[in-house]
Amino acid sequence: MTSVAQTPVRRRSWGDTAKAWAKIASRELSTVAITIFGLLLITFFIARVIPIDPVLAVVGDNARPETYEAARVELGLDKPLWKQFAVYTGKVFTGDLGRSVLTSNTVVDDIKRVFPATLELATLGTLIGCLLGIPLGVLAAVYQGRWPDQIARVIGLFGYSIPVFWLGLMGLLLFYAKLGWVGGPGRAGVAFQDLITPITGILVIDAAIEGDWEAFRDAWSHLILPSAVLGILSVAYISRMTRSFMITELQQQYVIAARVKGLSEFRVVWRHAMHNAFVPLVTVIAVSYMHLLEGSVLTETIFAWPGLGRYLTHSLLNADMNAVLGGTLVIGAVFIGVNLLSDILGRLVDPRTR
Amino acid sequence: MRHVAKLMVASAFSALLATTAHTTVAFAQTPKDTVVMAKQIDDIITLDPAEAFEFSGVEVVTNVYDKLMGVDLAKNNELVPEIAQSWSVTPDNLTYTFKLRPGVKFHSGNPLTAADVVYSFQRAVTLNKSPGFILAQFGFTKDNVLEKVKATDDGTLVITVSKPFAPTFFLNCLTSGVASIVDTKLVKANEKDGDWGNGWLKLNSAGSGAYKVRAYRPNEQYALDANESWYKGAPKSKRIVVRHVAEPASQRLLLEKGDIDIARNLSKDQLAAVKTNKDVEIVQGDKGYILYLGLNQKNPNFAKPEVREALKYLVDYASIERNIVEGTYKAHESFLPKGFLGAIDDKPYKYDPAKAKELLAKAGLPNGFTVTMDVRSVNPITDIAQAIQSSWAQAGIKLELIPGDGKQTLTKYRARTHDIYIGQWGPDYLDPHTNAETFAINENNGEDAKSKTLAWRNAWDIPDMTKITQANVLETDASKRAAVYGDLQREHQKVSPFVIMFQQVEVSADRKGVKGWVIGPSSDTNFYAPITKN
Fold first, then answer.
1. What tens digit of pLDDT does each residue of B281-310 get?
2. What strands, in cross-sheet order, belong to the sheet with B95-100?
3. What is the mean pLDDT of chain A?
4. Helix/strand/coil (H/E/C) assignment for every residue in chain A
5. Does residue B208 carry a pLDDT above 50?
6. Contacts of B254 in chain A (CB under 8 A)
7. Using CA atoms, how far apart are residues A172 and A182, in angstroms rounded to an integer?
8. Second label for B208, Cα 20 to 30 Å away, from A167, A293, A344, B159?
């Protein structure tokens, strides 16, 4: 019975490990390439079939026919579709995502500006989701069917079902307008706007690097509410998943064995059961993180947050194709990146893969 | 792993503390010399005066650049010389001579001369972007502009137009953003591949106006710095910051909290709410935007004059104004907005279902018909469309609403594949011809038409009205010109496939202490320079 809790582990040589990783890497890379190409193809054609005239975004409704025609040619829309796609793909491979017609900037510059804003929100939101969601899920599993479980269920239900725009507005009303604990919509107060030179693009980090603690406080006070709103969604998801993983683990034989051995309940739950539940949980956290990284359009709109979600929606509704394609590519790349990361993390925490 | 678990529980608590017990942050009110606005500015695609044609872009241009002519808002939009100190026109109405104000300097310190005006006009006509036609309609092309627009010396400019247009028409067009004067040296220094500096000017400024662009980040904000040596005197506030806040409810919260001074896009409900706040004041201005229904004449039912008239009796103007758009639109039934030369205030139509039924019976449709309307999914357009849907049902007309995004409904409208389009029209410049042209001129109703006006989009073939409207632009006597526009509008009300319903009222909610902010009749006349606060 004693051998149940621990599987004997065979130590691999460094050479073996490196080879195994190289194999994984090459497999992943080819998947990445195919996925990105597919993504490009689908987005491109979806963007072309939507019934919105992209020239309108450039010249507006009142332009004369000559002006309209000139803009159409300039956008390359007079060429056949396959040619447009070939030209675009060719440029993408040289790192040129084209220019956004709405902002007049290159799409690469635009994304450099909007993505950190989303990254900041999503990371803090996921952090809140993990720090609150995991303990909550564990509690719910341990006290399954009793009041801590019920409370966790209510919190989960709340996070799942409350519309995020309502939650955001109520949060602003209470914590900003009434209590004055946090900053209002926007990434920074007017007095602090443009004070911090972007290094990472993430305002709280840049302010900390510069050592400007007033700006840091200001940025933090603007960041906390929208990320808490996103965090609640993430808490709901992560806590429910943690609960179900933990319930499965707690019914396993090794848990009974541990209990028979006389281990403390804390040790049984956190050392043994949690250790195993953590492997699938990493994937869950990654999924939740990716979801937030796509940019939450509603949250970004309510909080006047200049992030990726708002940028993409605005571009799509104006048929600003370069921006839409560029944004989608970035999201695709991030998806693949986070997936890869969670795979690696999963391998690292899972003793069976060592 | 044990440490990890303990750490996680501990951090969970500290995170909880951080979110809930985050003690009161001392927020700076808006800085003293800076006026902060919240506004939807995501319509801006460029700050280049030769290209800007959207509401928010034009508003920036007018505060950054100077023009030859301007309008006096206090005197019913009367024309006044600005960079031109004086002007004269030959008796044949073909040649204008402008004497420029001496000593005006650009933000860069370069002097503003007649050569800069020539360059600016040449640039606008050659680039020929969206607003380019406002100048081009006077016969300027990229090949002849240097002969038509000439600097005879540093302070004198001679302009020759192609037809004896009404001087009011030409001069009114010179007040629009596309006629802004740019700093030749600075623009040329930033030229790239023969783009006339367009790429650079999209995001920067080279003007002589009240403010200069300090920083502009699309869809986020723009900040303007005062030009202390502006020829009209230094602006009252040192800096203007306009932040993009899409959500009106968020704009309201920011305003009530004092984090902004002016909220520009509050809806009817939010306005009603902030009115009770004693720290907030409301500023209003009539805007030239007309809200109307366009009835496509390709639909055989709408080709019947009785049906068109019946529909005009089937809109409950008063109830929509009271219940949906109060304070932001008011009833208006003619194609020239109030404040324009020749505008009339006649409202011949009121909600009258009995009369409408009578007209429908006469048209052979006593039981009504089924029809669709393309509706942009924004308020108040959706609400108005729904109100119309219910009142049309009274006369047996089954109206199906097709929701869509703005650009999507517009794409369909421009292709003439709609039944009914509900939308807004904003004048391109401060002269009645801008609306008369689009509502009452259709030179060629075919698919190959060069000029696709609103009359064309609704397939309304009007050779006679087209001639009258075109002739009126040559009428030099301003009062005669106004009288013809009056007759045109009355005729138009009777026969046109346009159900003109409302004129927009722009409303801005300001913190108490904000003074001098006046909303003009167009984006070209929303001036920041007089704004002060204490």
1. 999 888 889 999 999 999 999 999 999 999
2. B84-89, B95-100, B156-160, B149-153
3. 84
4. CHHHCCCCCCCCCHHHHHHHHHHHHHHHHHHHHHHHHHHHHHHHHHHHHCCCCHHHHHHCCCCCHHHHHHHHHHCCCCCCHHHHHHHHHHHHHCCCCCECCCCCCEHHHHHHHHHHHHHHHHHHHHHHHHHHHHHHHHHHHHCCCCHHHHHHHHHHHHHHHCCHHHHHHHHHHHHHHHCCCCCCCCCCCHHHCCCCCCCCCCHHHHHHHHCCHHHHHHHHHHHHHHHHHHHHHHHHHHHHHHHHHHHHHHCCHHHHHHHHCCCCHHHHHHHHHHHHHHHHHHHHHHHHHHHHHCCCHHHHHHCCCCCHHHHHHHHHHCCCHHHHHHHHHHHHHHHHHHHHHHHHHHHHHCHHHC
5. yes
6. 184-186
7. 8
8. B159
pTM: 0.82
Task: Please state, as a whole number, how many other Cβ atoms lie within 10 Å of the Cβ of residue A62.
Answer: 18
Write the residue in B1, B218, B405 that is nearest to A271 by C-beta: B1
Task: Find tokens 């953003």 and name the residue.
Answer: B177
Residues 6 or more apart whose CB falls under 8 angstroms from that of A191 comprise A218, B28, B30, B31
pLDDT top residue among B286 and B185:
B185
Select from B8, B45, B244 the Cβ nearest to the Cβ of A58: B45
A102·B30 Cβ contact <8 A: no
pLDDT digit string, tens, across residues A182-202: 888 888 877 777 777 777 888
ipTM of predicted complex: 0.75
Separation between Cα atoms, residue A329 and residue B223, nearest integer Å: 31
**Would you call A275 and B1 a contact, using CB atoms and an 8 Å cutoff?**
yes
Cβ count near B136 (within 10 Å): 19
Going B76 to B79 to B83 to B85, the CA torsion angle's sign is: negative
Strands B370-376 and B262-263: unpaired
Residues 6+ apart with CB under 8 A from A193: B221, B223, B241
Question: B409 to chain A: nearest residue by CA?
Answer: A52
Contacts of A66 in chain B (CB under 8 A): 128
| Chain A residue closest in CA terms to B435 | A62
CB contact under 8 A, A65 and B45: no
Q: A281 CB contacts (<8 Å, ≥6 apart)?
A: A134, A238, A241, A242, A245
Residue of A nearest to B28 (CA): A191
Q: Residues near B55 by Cβ (< 8 Å), separated by ≥ 6? A: B43, B426, B523
B118: tokens are 């020539």
* Rounded Cα distance, B120 and B42, in Å: 26
